[in-house]
Specification:
Layout lengths: L7 H12 L7 E4 L2 E4 L9 H18 L15 E4 L2 E4 L2 E4 L1 H9 L6 H11 L9 H10 L7
Antiparallel strand pairs: 1-2, 3-4, 4-5
């Protein structure tokens, strides 16, 4: 698909979603990413099923002339990085590099710096049961008349 068309991402996403619909029990798509996940069932191990699922997905790609960049592929992993998180058998977890960036961030010296830090810290809000309560005093400092 030509790049630069204003609706190209949505059109491509719709195409990929439709093409992989028959595989949705074990393959999810997100724009140009395809996630294939497998578990032990039907008398086969999780890896045996995974190989079968990968074959089906790769065959669908071949049939529809979709190509993958081998350097960007991750096969047989227990977890994978995705949108700043890691997804695996045990669910979603924060990317340690993002956590380190928040921890190592210098103390904000002005509202602009504080706004940047809060934006980054908000990344972890789902891992803190009381993030809003913790962030409220800092958010108050972003008001126009705050000192």
């Amino acid at each position: 698909m030509p790049q630069g068309l204003s609706n190209a991402p949505a059109t491509f996403n719709r195409l990929v979603t439709q093409l992989f619909r028959p595989h949705r029990a074990y393959a999810q798509t997100y724009f140009d990413d395809i996630f294939v996940h497998s578990r032990a069932e039907h008398g086969k191990s999780d890896m045996e099923n995974h190989i079968d699922h990968l074959r089906a997905v790769l065959e669908c790609m071949r049939t529809n002339k979709l190509y993958a960049n081998a350097d960007k592929c991750i096969f047989g992993a227990e977890e994978i990085p995705f949108l700043g998180y890691f997804i695996g058998k045990r669910g979603l977890r924060a990317d340690p590099a993002k956590v380190k960036a928040i921890v190592d961030w210098p103390v904000p010296a002005n509202q602009k710096d504080l706004h940047k830090w809060l934006g980054l810290a908000n990344y972890l809000h789902k891992y803190s049961g009381n993030y809003a309560e913790l962030a409220r005093p800092l958010s108050t400092l972003l008001k126009k008349d705050a000192e």
